[in-house]
Amino acid sequence: MNNRRKNRLLVAVAILAGLGLATALVMYALRSNIDLFYTPSEILNGKGESLEKPTPGQRLRVGGMVMPGSVKRDPNTLQVSFKLYDANGVVSVSYLGILPDLFREGQGVVAQGVLEPGNLIEAKEVLAKHDEKYTPPEIEDAMKKNHKIAQAGQP
């Protein structure tokens, strides 16, 4: 092989290696920013056909209804704890901060945070639905699916 072809081959290999490395670094960086959506029953029982459960330390979003009577506020801090439920499960959420104005018991919310051992979500952000007529498609689909499963399990 002559020198000119050898140099071109080395340049092409170097470019491909650089692109591969850049792609790998971007994918690694984005991996930590992916927040998967779960309902309370999916956290407890698993998600999908494989019934894969989230692991402690995993970042996630959980959507459900705030259980009536479960909201507990610390009088000295902005710490709030409450329970989210759906047709088949209940999980606890702990949040430090100011809750949205529309947050109340019986209201649909989405909590974004980290799953801790014992099915506790340490929320970094809590979002309340602003309109009863609108539900994000992923939450609506998950709630419909859980409702169907609950109905199928009843005699």
Radius of gyration: 22 Å
The oligomerization state is single chain
Tell me the strand percentage band.
25-35%
Number of strands: 7
Low-confidence blocks of residues:
none
Instruction: Give helix and strand order, one letter per element, not per position.
Output: HEHEEEEEEH
Q: Helical segment tally? A: 3
What is the mean predicted local confidence, pLDDT?
85
Question: Helicity level, as a percent range?
Answer: 25-40%
Q: Could you describe the largest sheet, including whether it forms a barrel?
A: 5 strands, mixed, barrel
> Given the C-alpha coordinates, what overall shape results?
elongated
Distance separating the two termini: 78 Å
Order of strands in the sheet with most strands: 2-4-5-7-6
Look at the helices and sheets and give the structural class: alpha+beta
Offer a quick outline of the entry.
This protein has 155 residues and is an alpha+beta fold.
How would you describe what is shown here?
With 155 residues, the chain is α+β, with helices and mostly antiparallel strands. It has helices spanning 3-31, 40-45, 137-153, and strands at 36-38, 59-66, 72-73, 79-85, 90-96, 108-116, 120-128. Strand 1, helix 2 and strand 2 form a beta-alpha-beta unit. The longest helix is centred in the N-terminal third of the chain and has 29 residues, at 3-31. The model has no long low-confidence stretch (mean pLDDT 85).
